[in-house]
Write a structure and sequence with these properties.
The structure is a homodimer of 279-residue chains. Chain A has 279 residues and is an alpha/beta fold. Chain A has 9 helices and 12 strands. At the A-B interface, β2 and α8 of A face β2 and α8 of B. β2 of chain A pairs antiparallel with β2 of chain B, so a sheet runs across the interface.
Chain lengths: 279, 279
């Protein structure tokens, strides 16, 4: 028997990944969770049929979500990650020796549990004494707080199901308020080649909540056949004011890659033109 | 009936593209040529089962192959394209108002003929009076010439069949000799994420023939799920000495994208480390 995971980028385009076996499957309170062993990418976390992360290429996504904003901050000490129950973003956050506390707010406890058991190379940092894992809805978590974090990173699934409320002006405004002075923000903000309207809408919402908002790109093999869009935002810090790299063990991120990731090809400019801040 | 084109990146990973119909098919002297209409990417040229170019994303590949080297040259007048029978690279070359003559050397006359008939948006420039189409083996064409071109661009299929001789130190040395003083070179040099050893071998060969050789990246949806590698080379001109953009109508290339394309993530450095010139 040959098993292939079919990851539909659109209904006319898919990435097909040969699968060795299903390791774990659970219908959680929020989503259909599967962990499978693939031949090309090693072990993979699948939520509602969509590849979230794989052992082979997760470093690209997690490094770019964490290190771009954190290297714009002069001294990030308290960091909040919303989503990201696999632990990969937290692992990257902890590479910054300045970080004293990292809070992970994940809505689905089953993701944390399954990744802790089955994907230790990604979840390994969740047991670090600097980390607090909070099972809660990120939308609610930021509602009643202000000035608590140096960085907020949103590591969500696509905007549907449990993640829908994380793509919302009110949420972004709450995140802005939760940041201390000099605070920075980044989020995964979807696929600009195949979903330009979605990317434009998300960017517009973030731009309404932050005076500085800048899209940046990274290419991740299991994400959609083209570069993925992230958005950096802040209350004033500029995306290109990069601190010297303060982490070791990085495989994708560097100062050069940081700066290069903000160079958008001209065919994409219109998605961000009216809103793009001067950061 | 649903038709799907299965583009195998590896034997464990494929990109599957839904096809409306086959427009043209020919077993040429050199390869199996097909032109198909896809739903996601428009019309596509397929050689020996591998997607070569599609109407929707060809601009990325052709702009990056042509404009990176040509914008390093102060005044490119005579340009040689080897391969590229679809005409897309020549079309980009002719955007440079400095160019007086562009020669296309394509081994397979059937590619030129089929693309002229069925892919006019890509092949349109082949009838320009500045263009000469020469049906010949590029390997032979450069053997007995010296100091004739300001730029040589190698727009080949993967290194097998008719393209094998284009991935070879002797060929690259002949190309270097064919360049005038100040001449520049670029080639498509395969897929670094899934085929790192191949990319390393090709880069090593180019580095033996040119004092300056620099890899650069661009992400093309139908090419392999990660960024594609190109190589810039010259007898002394440095890849980052970019002229002001002298072309109109560009959708992917810009000065910023040019510079960003040379920023390689750290996990790839080792592929080019021993050989990388200081260009």
């Amino acid at each position: 028997m040959e098993l292939w995971l079919i990851e539909r980028h659109t209904d006319r385009l898919s990435l097909n990944v040969k699968v060795e076996k299903t390791v774990y499957r659970e219908k959680t309170r929020y989503q259909d969770l599967a962990i499978v062993d693939t031949y090309e990418f090693g072990r993979a976390l699948i939520l509602d049929g969509v590849i979230q992360t794989t052992e082979r290429d997760e470093f690209i996504y997690h490094e770019m979500l964490a290190h771009v904003p954190l290297h714009v901050h002069t001294n990030p000490e308290r960091v909040l990650v919303i989503g990201g129950g696999d632990g990969g973003t937290i692992r990257e956050v902890l590479r910054h020796p300045t970080v004293k506390e990292a809070h992970l707010v994940e809505i689905d406890e089953a993701v944390v549990r399954a990744c802790t058991t089955y994907m230790p190379s990604i979840s390994c940092a969740l047991s670090d004494p600097r980390v607090r894992v909070i099972i809660d809805d990120g939308v609610e978590f930021v509602k009643d707080k202000a000035g608590e974090y140096d960085a907020v990173l949103v590591d969500s699934t696509d905007p549907s199901g449990p993640s829908l409320g994380l793509f919302n002006v009110e949420f972004y405004s709450n995140v802005a308020r939760v940041l201390r002075d000099g605070g920075v923000f980044a989020a995964q903000t979807e696929q600009p080649f195949f979903e330009p309207d979605l990317v434009r809408r998300i960017f517009h919402m973030i731009s309404q909540a932050f005076p500085v908002a800048r899209p940046y790109l990274a290419t991740i093999p299991t994400y959609s056949s083209w570069s993925w869009c992230f958005t950096f935002a802040s209350k004033g810090e500029h995306a290109e004011n990069v601190m010297p790299t303060r982490c070791t063990g990085l495989r994708y991120y560097s100062r050069e890659v940081h700066l290069a990731s903000f160079a958008l090809p001209p065919f994409m400019h219109h998605l961000f033109e009216q809103d793009v801040a001067t950061g």
